[in-house]
Amino acid sequence: MGYSPIYQNLHVVASSSSSSSSSPVKNKVLVFCMMLSLWVYMIYCCVGYCSTVPGIMLRPSHPHHAQVGPNRTQTRIQSQAHGDPDTQADPLFGGVSSSRDLLNNGDDVDSRGEDWGETRGVWDERVPSGRSNGSAPGESRRLPQAIIIGVKKGGTRALLEFLRVHPDIRAVGAEPHFFDRNYDKGLAWYRDLMPETVEGQITMEKTPSYYVTKDVPARIHTMSPDTSLIVVVRDPVTRAISDYTQTRSKKPDILSFERLLFKNRTLGLVDTSWSAVQIGMYAKHLERWLLYFPIGRLLFVSGERLIVDPAGEMARVQDFLGLRRVVTDKHFHFNPAKGFPCLKRPEGNGKPHCLGKTKGRTHPNIDPQVVQSLREFYKPFNRRFYQMTGQDFGWD
Ligand SMILES: Nc1ncnc2c1ncn2[C@@H]1O[C@H](COP(=O)(O)OS(=O)(=O)O)[C@@H](OP(=O)(O)O)[C@H]1O
What we know:
The protein has 13 helices and eleven strands. The protein is of the alpha/beta class and 396 residues long.
């Protein structure tokens, strides 16, 4: 049984009252003791110790890790000695400044797992995710062995929901933002957010801002260098417009895309401090990850292919995670009205389930010349990204 100060104090009070006569002074002492006990207990609860605190599991050992992904043998750790990649001179990135606004501003509706409630249980009605009062035998909460680290507006929610169909995956719905915003809460806090799993299942989460946040690669590496990292990437131009569309849906008064995009429109000078632009400089962010993880620890999923060939991309993801290919063509139904694949219900009952209205917003019309300038801006970054990943995403 866990330690309970109220139990201890009541025990003391009870034994003292039974062994003594009831003088007014003793009665006052008794009342004082009881009040004190109540206060101690309330403070105890306020700091979160009313329930048992789980121990920290720093290095989850999982059979999954014995087989996942290529290049598993060596983990290249190049520590801070290499310096901060953001501040190093780079001919391509030219000393990119810090982000003007959106990188970590928490404005993404998806942080709260908006679509989670709608999608949960579509195929997955076996094990409840999230907190539960009791654990079934063999179930426990584990730190994630695989994380979808980005990118914002890449298609991360769709990927997570597709993965949740797999019986060997359990994922937390909302974005925990542990490694960027909640790191001081500690790994025990993080682990407690995770759904319960049995041996052999993979625990996952997605927080798209991880990919672009400076301290995150080192922090995930400290948790486990064997973490499998998945990045959903999308044409950086459409991604930027999607990002802008999301912001505008919440702040309709913001400046136009064009006004935010250029430092100097006449010179065609793009403002790289605007996060909507900065996030799409994928190669720059990847360099930081490669200081801590070998390229084989990362899987790059095409956001475009996830829409036109979800089963194909899912096959790659399942292979990367060392899973059986359970999620296949038969799980998807393309909804022409939405323009997206949706998940069929188990046993074909009812309408296929599509993500909510925060996905697939109508993008504003942007002057084609402006779009072209942005496309030109991204070209060298894209080329470098294709080289680094060995994949041509066909954005140019
Ligand atoms: N199957 C399916 N259903 C709906 N939407 C889909 C799907 N697959 C990919 N997408 C694209 O996902 C884009 C949103 O990306 P994210 O989920 O990563 O956004 S967020 O960063 O979590 O807010 C979202 O971007 P927008 O179309 O710009 O809204 C979609 O294009």
